[in-house]
Structures
1.
Amino acid sequence: MYRIRLHGRGGQGIKTASRILGTALFRSGFEVQDAPRYGAERRGAPIFAYVRADDKVICERGLIHQPNLVVVADETLFDLPAANVLEGLDGRAVLLINSERSAQDWCRQLQLPGQVTVLDGAAVVREAGRVPAGALCVGAAARLLGVVSRRALLQAVAEELAGHDAAAIQTSQQAVSQAYELFAGEAGLVQRLQSGAKKSVTTPPKWVELDCEALPRAAPTITMAATSALVKTGLWRTRRPRIDRALCSRCGLCRTLCPEGGIDLDGEGYPVIDYRYCKGCLLCAAQCPRRAIAVADERTVSPPQPKEGEP
Amino acid sequence: MSESGPSSHSHLAPGTPLCAGCGGLQALQQLYRVLGDKTVVVNAAGCMTLLSIYPFTPFAGSWLYTAMACAAAGAQGVRDALDIQLAKGRISSAEDLATVVLTGDGSAYGMGLSATSAALDRGLDFLYLCYDNEGYGNTGHQYSSATPRAAHTATSRVSGYAGSKKDLFAIWAAHRPSYVATAIAAEPQDLARKVKKAAALRGPRLLLVLAPCPTGWGFDPALTVKVGQLAVETGIWPLKEYVDGRAVHTKIPRQRTPLAEYLRLQGRFAHLFSPQPDEQRLAELQQAVEDYWQQVTE
Ligand SMILES: Cc1ncc(C[n+]2csc(CCOP(=O)(O)OP(=O)(O)O)c2C)c(N)n1
Ligand code: SF4
Ligand code: SF4
Ligand code: SF4
Ligand SMILES: [Mg+2]
């Protein structure tokens, strides 16, 4: 059986990617399951989807804990322990990363027993046009499996994108096909594992006893105010708004409009963005009447982990 | 801002899991600055429920979860409990809290309407905040009875929603409540004035806020405010209030921007523009806006 997990962020087309791969495998004669994880399909938030394929009926259900292929469409996910990207990667599994960095580089950083391979999605996009990262990765993943023909793959793209305009479908097909081509040398790298249920490797949670209220009122109660400030949503950001004080007129509009409450005013009335929380929606930059907010690529301005209290 | 939370109790803390550029969260930020922490927010299932996932909450005041159909009934319980505490002298009137319902359109226009109508009959003293993202956002944007005609949703994929957006403003006004207003976060001054007005009144009050939703409507999060402004300028989202038995518009866009400019920005209407513009349906949608403003006198 093939057990494939796809990781990315909401908005990168991970759900569609899993459907394309599922349909392509189905068209290639496999029994298939594909599903996104329900609940957190929010733009920018970590999301994963999974695909199982086998030549007989699949009786396995639920999350994939022991994948033979893990696809990571967004390399910043490695910094997020909650994304659980590396779960269950053993010596036989293949890890495919969408990244401009080399596979050797990643091997050194991650110190994994299995095989790491890299798709330079940015380069494909430069040639073929803008296509969601998820779809690009599917092109590469299909080739790594070695059992999906280009024809089946492109048909799956058309089928899953039905309803989009013809030009968008064509661009996607071109990009997916290019990614597929790039991996010709690694076709079939992913080994099929024995089907049949494996022993579950889920570790039982470490229970923590919490003080609770008397039974009649024992619903979980948060008694501390505004605890969400402990969650640093700044990690979602891929682009960073930057205020140029020389241009700013201190009108305060950006502060009023920021959905996150992530902009405060300093002693002189200038707005200050709290990068611990700014999700990078960039509506402040779009609305500033003085065009005082510029936009930079997050990777060029900071290490992935924002520092505490960073201006 | 310290690790233990903000020093001020009059705004919503950051760190919520809602989408970047969420127009509903944007409105709630502005509303909470006026309402503050002396509130009990009764929240029916929807995107905003994700604000308070144990042990995290952005609220400085209280928050309570209810099922989709029963936020207004939950508010009745909260109001009654506070009134009993007041009557028994267990809390002073200075410690009293305002009862605020927070739901999406799925609840407000549909599943929760019956309980809301009953609360209106009883003259319940509460403020209802509906953030209207025109669909069941939290479950993947299926259509609701607030979905506009022709919009693509997860359950109206082929040629868009065949129904028309329900007029919740009129339904509320027909109950003769203390206050009803429409608003949008892209017009912060209009919104702030209406919240202040609503907060100062007693009895049933509704603030119905259009909430541009980048995820469900299909546009770049940087455009949330632009889409909101166009909703007002094209006249498809009229800003108005009902008070003392009269409905009055707070902004009348005399020179209305063509509706197509609003629709074109959103993926959910893309099928109206490509492969070819669907002139007939676009004209019908524009006509519905014209018909609305035709009957507006004040
Ligand atoms: C009775 C009931 N049916 C279905 C659901 C599943 N559900 C949870 S949130 C939601 C969508 C609610 O839509 P809306 O009120 O518009 O809020 P939004 O998600 O758009 O913020 C649904 C259908 C539920 N919780 N209860
Ligand atoms: S909107 Fe622009 S000009 Fe106004 S305070 Fe913000 S940065 Fe300054
Ligand atoms: S990009 Fe601007 S508006 Fe968006 S979260 Fe960051 S500071 Fe707020
Ligand atoms: S789906 Fe829409 S309403 Fe819900 S959190 Fe995302 S942007 Fe906001
Ligand atoms: Mg909704």
Note: Chain A touches chain B through 43 residues (CB under 8 Å).
2.
Amino acid sequence: MADINKKKIVLPLAPNEEFGSVKHLNTKKIKLPHGIPGHNLTEIEREVSADEPPALAVNDQLSVVGKRTKRIDAIYKVTGAAKYTSDIQLPGMLYGKFLRSPHPHAKIKSIDVSAAERHRGVHAVHILSVEPGGAVQRDNGHDAPAETYHVDKLPVLRYVGQPIAGVAAISDKVAREAVQLIKVEYETLPFVVDLDEAMKKGAPLVFEEKVEQQQTGGDVGGEAGAGQQGNLRGPSIGSFYGGPRGDVDQGFNESDIVVEGEFRTQVQTHCALETHGIVADWQTNMLTIYASTQSTKSVRNDLAELFDLPLSKVRVITEYMGGGFGAKFGAGHFGVMAVVLSKKSGHPVKLMLDRKEEQTTAGNRPNSQQMLKIGVKKDGTLQAIDLTSYGTAGIGLGAGVGRVAQDMYTCSNFRMAQYDVFTHAGPGAAFRAPGNVQGCFALEQLIDEIAEKLNLDPLAYRDKIDQSEIRKVERKKGAEKFGWKRKQPGSDSGVVKKGIGVAQGHWPRIIHVDSSATVRINKGGSVEIMSGVQDIGTGTKTILAQVVAEELGLKAEDITVKIGDTTYPDGPGSGGSVTAGSITPAARNAAYQAKMQLLGQVAGGWQVEIADLDMEKGEIFAKSDTSKRMSFVDATKKMRTNQIMATASRPDDYGGFEVGNAIGYDRLGSVQFAEVSVDTETGVIKVDRVVAAHSCGRPLNPLQIESQINGGVIMGVGYALYEDRIMDKETGYMVNANLDQYKLPYSKEIPHIENIIIEQYGAHSSTDASGIGEPANVATAAAIANAVYNAIGVRIYELPMTPDKVLAALQVI
Amino acid sequence: MNNKSSNEEKKAVSRRSFLKGAGVTTASTVAMSAGLLSFKAPETAPKRPPVLGPGDTEVRLEVNGQQESVWVEPRTTLAEALRDHLHLTGTKVVCDRGSCSACTVWLNDKPVCSCMTLAVDAEGSKVTTVEGLADGDTLHPVQEAFIEYDAAMCGYCTPGMVMSCAGLLKRNANPNLDDVKAATSGNLCRCGTYPKVFEATLAAAKKM
Ligand code: FES
Ligand code: FES
């Protein structure tokens, strides 16, 4: 094993070091549905690789895809049979536990683990000196071999909860006891946990040197090589959608109306029900890992690199996982520790974070302070947008506020400067539509202000400035369902005032071409699909079964889905709403190629052309001669081999990519409407109703999509009204590191939610599907904020909109 | 205690009595400082539970209709006894402090948080976990409805949700939406299955 403490942190390959687009040996032209049914549906011709399946018709002509289909693994979830990482018990398994920093900023003067090592039931102790997940100083001096404990080379402690050492023992309780026996002498240093304080001159520095951050596929990480001054790093002035545009100052000069505001959003924690954690089983021939992760391959890749193992010698399994929401990528500090402890002790080691560790060390949505200014012409045309933002991801990077101001509306003069601010707090992580949720809260309130200044209805104004065809349809259908009729702001009489509001969101269509699947047809008719992709609760298993079933003329429940294991071909990481759009075309293509092999054998037997054969409703038949017909099961019994199989990978989008190898054309649009009641005496806001109109390309399973949208809305309600990580400025501790004082929406806070799912065909792939996780969460807080304004006639610029802020806005307190 | 010598028994009794006298109520503190502490327990004193631990203690439970016996430290929670000792991992521990209800099981047919219940306090009780809710191969109507209405996403809160909702239907065969919300008001679901949980539970009630 290489000494992990000596490992250099390697930044990911710059895009230009990988190959670009792909050439095909043979191509063909196919016509695919394009547009929105009932609005502008047409057909478009695309030249695609010759081994692509034929175009899939629109949903109402299909039998499995697009139909409300029960989750195929639900039965295991409702009976308790589903085994999550936290449920894994292996023979001889030990339990790992961390010693964590009790100080927000300190150096370790001495550390003595001997009493912990001697404690009965303890098998291994290890001192950690590099923490994955946070920013890392360039030229850091973290290369002391852990075993000799050169205290001067140990990492500086930069937040309360930073891991210092780990223990593996025969039970969780014994491990906890041993951790308490580790004696550490600290030299405490000045610290800062508050965003505004950290930006002041002379504030305690989090990093003395320049830092970079290793990326783990979670769409987080400041721009490489950005400037750094004090605790301030940046600015980022562009995104994958480009840099500044036009002349912003001139744009403002030419504007008739200029609106501006300062918006603030809080730190939100992910609160997945299953905490981060790993079971590591180090054997000489294979390192086997059970991980609660959103990306099996990211865990494998991290561990292979850190421990100098070939990718083939690390196996990562995620059969069921209890939620991630962006924070569960890579091996994590707990993963690295579990592997070290397993190696040292010769036993499997389980290391699941407890709830407090989860809240303080495992990621969060960074806060933000956003200064947004927009200039428009008298007719409402956007003239200039200027955005400056600051946010803190603690010791990590990635506190930007996304691309909504840059990309949602067309505006030829645009400029932004987004800064990361370091504080002595746990690292941020990607969190469901990173940045865009924060950015949307500011942008969509300001757009409403402009509409009001122009004396236009907020929907009518968006009809004017929004180029998106899908959001146009969403606004129309949403308004109908919602019964959009807006009173004058603050005009509701009585103590409890009602109001309505709308906001829009958008999210890029991101594709990971590194997404593959194998489909196997067995003698006797059983069919399997296998991929490393994991189902994080979004329903990936079910949509894979649907896509394969559709291709083979079977039912979803006929397909056995084996995923979440790096033994199978790599799947995409599940973050950024990439999964459905990335893996389902690979699945369909593999099913199609396996089907062609089977039909080839049948065609040989029946002496017909393959093209004359098709599969439907569990049968194989010749289109030219209906007497030639055989059940799928019988046909497989006549296969010349026991199995037929094919593996396929996600090809490039049929029409190519808009940016690089990953950003597709078309955005995933959303429009959400909210109705709220605001008690002007207590300041309590209640969200009564939400109508959420969404698109995700071809909807594969509306039942699951509804669930995803509900989930995004509910998370948005929590973000808007309740959730807030509270740091004590005096001690640097998170004071609500639990699930009761960290307020979340429970059953009584759930609004009545109605969904509208709009089919949108873009002819991008063999399934033309996209994800829905992020879009579902982008617009909710902004829609609620606009509804609150409509109710009480005063705007609230800061999240969460707690009673004190409402009463302050009403000038009652 | 039957096979203990009378000497041992006496020691045990006096130790218990002392512990009683040293209780932290104001009255006993006053009594102690006034030198009035009596080491003899009054005849009418309620029976005190035996002092257990720190070693393992046997706890007998009826779990999902099965007689079980586990040896656990007295500090072991019912959730830990079920998960770590009986390998019934359907019950989940999420907050370990009574704020999420993921660990809900039925104790003598009433939903409780198994993370807030000591295993020793469940001695002799009937425990029903999510694994024991179905009747053989026939799922409980709430389980059926959860599948039908997509009320389980990641599924980690689901065992607790199912036990809360099935518990409601046991007490109230004809609940309305507010009853379901009240019954699940302690259940955290971060995936946001609540609307589907409400639908499913109301539908299950209709079917039962
Ligand atoms: S785990 Fe028992 S209530 Fe949360
Ligand atoms: S289904 Fe994931 S937490 Fe409820």
Note: Chain B touches chain A through 57 residues (CB under 8 Å).
